[in-house]
Amino acid sequence: LVRLRGRLSRSQNVFGKSLLSVLSRDRLDDDAWEEIEDSLIGADVGVEATGEIVGRLRERVKVLGTRTPTELRALLTAELVEALDPTLDRSLKVGGKPSVLMVVGVNGSGKTTTCGKIARVLIADGHSVLLGAADTFRAAAAEQLATWAGRVGAEVVRGPEGADPASVAFDAVKKGVDTGVDTVLVDTAGRLQNKVGLMDELSKVKRVVEKHGPVDETLLVLDATTGQNGLEQARVFTEVVDVTGVVLTKLDGTAKGGIVIAVQRKLGIPVKLVGLGEGPDDLAPFEPAAFVDALVG
Ligand code: GDP
């Protein structure tokens, strides 16, 4: 929690300070409620979610006669945690032999980096990991994944530049099966110009991977700094593949950590991990209570 607090300090400043000053006022009149709404919307919580959260908060404040800033903060925190559905299972499914995780998302969202970071966590847990470089579209992607593999001690399977992504994915999982690796992580390309092309490519990758067995997780990587727009783009991926979890990256670089609430609400998929920097250890499991606490400040 301490670590998360430090890392989210930028979110905390913007989201927390204005909010706490409003909560500390003598009277919570309509203007004050509007300011609370504005600060939530400003933190990218989203208009709809904000309306519901503030509506429920007002109701509770009325019913309970809550007054002190500490009580108000606690009620707001509870509403935000509730909006994130704290009962959801956010663990990574890594039961298969090998477990197969596909990583999808828009180019630049942090897929390759996230593959490296996940490998790091799994290897530290005693798993063996193989990275499959099925992002054959971007010239440097395979190179970058290979660098990550070296850095964290994973194996890597890559094809020539411009190779068929599905064939690289197939080879990667096949090698994982043949060599008895615990987990295969498949990095994919995220060209968004053409939804049909993307759909064809990702479903083909998934299909060939499934020749070896089921895909355990399909993780959608989403750049938190792209806000509501990024969210719309991300939705396309959920229409194309069966996404089982979201990794929200670059939370270290945004004052708009409320996007987590919008993401989970709009996509209906649990945020499982958050990216907090470019280094190998800058990945954390997403925990709603700790996150909201850091956010509210
Ligand atoms: P891809 O095209 O989706 O594979 O994206 P990359 O993994 O190449 O990442 C794009 C850029 O975002 C790189 O410069 C990464 O170092 C950076 N990046 C990825 N995740 C994070 C994060 O959590 N925080 C920050 N600050 N940068 C990140």
From TrEMBL:
Keywords: Cell membrane, Cytoplasm, GTP-binding, Hydrolase, Membrane, Nucleotide-binding, Receptor. It is found in: Cell membrane; Cytoplasm. One of its GO terms (cellular component) is cytoplasm. It catalyses: GTP + H2O = GDP + phosphate + H(+). The keyword rRNA-binding does not apply. Its EC number is 3.6.5.4. It is a peripheral membrane protein. One of its GO terms (molecular function) is GTP binding. GTP binds at residues 105-112, 187-191, 249-252. Residues 270-283 form the SRP54-type proteins GTP-binding domain. One of its GO terms (biological process) is SRP-dependent cotranslational protein targeting to membrane. It is an enzyme of class 3 (hydrolase). The keyword GTP-binding applies. Involved in targeting and insertion of nascent membrane proteins into the cytoplasmic membrane. Acts as a receptor for the complex formed by the signal recognition particle (SRP) and the ribosome-nascent chain (RNC). Belongs to the GTP-binding SRP family. FtsY subfamily. Part of the signal recognition particle protein translocation system, which is composed of SRP and FtsY. This is Signal recognition particle receptor FtsY. The gene is ftsY.
